[in-house]
Design a protein that fits this description.
mainly alpha, 2 helices
């Protein structure tokens, strides 16, 4: 399933709230690192768009929707 980075960030933040405290401190640190990495990618994609780079694997941009080809 593909999604926008904004959606992924919101899902991770909500999951973090719903599952606090985490079983292991390393899980909390890993979640925060992944959230911050997605925010940074989102920021730099604005600059990279000038170079016409495509989206990340599994990422959609704009109003694109994943098409199910029945396979």
């Amino acid at each position: 399933m593909a999604m926008k980075l904004e959606e992924a960030i919101e899902i991770k933040l909500q999951w973090r709230k719903d599952n606090y405290p985490p079983a292991l401190p390393d899980e909390m640190n890993a979640d925060m690192l992944s959230i911050e990495a997605m925010k940074r990618v989102k920021y730099y994609q604005k600059l990279w768009d000038a170079w016409h780079l495509g989206p990340l694997p599994g990422e959609t941009r704009g109003e694109e929707k994943e098409v199910n080809d029945g396979s």
